[in-house]
Recover the amino acids of this structure.
């Protein structure tokens, strides 16, 4: 199974393909905001994908529109609730502690 590494803690967990990064990060015991519970409406689950971006599910229009409204977005930004794990390893960086 592919591995998800979560910075800045450095924790690594196995994640099945198709699972959202948000669900995987929460299951790993890491704190991440998710105010709209995964509907791409709040933007609070914004993360940076450091490695493995291409293995994730493609960015959808609602995700892109929400990212456009967030300060601090970069080319590595994703909404954790919208990005689904692929077949390869991924490293993400959380923005803040909740
Ligand atoms: S939980 Fe609200 S956008 Fe991801």
């Amino acid at each position: 199974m592919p591995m998800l590494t979560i910075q800045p803690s450095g924790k690594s967990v196995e994640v099945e393909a198709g699972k959202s990064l948000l669900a995987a990060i929460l299951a790993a015991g890491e704190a991440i905001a998710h105010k709209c519970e995964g509907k791409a409406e709040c933007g609070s689950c914004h993360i940076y994908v450091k490695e493995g971006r291409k293995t994730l599910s493609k960015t959808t229009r609602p995700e892109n529109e929400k990212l456009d409204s967030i300060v601090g977005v970069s080319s590595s930004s994703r909404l954790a609730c919208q990005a689904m794990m692929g077949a390869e390893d991924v490293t993400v960086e959380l923005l803040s502690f909740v």
Summary: The chain has a mean pLDDT of 95. The longest helix spans residues 61-68.
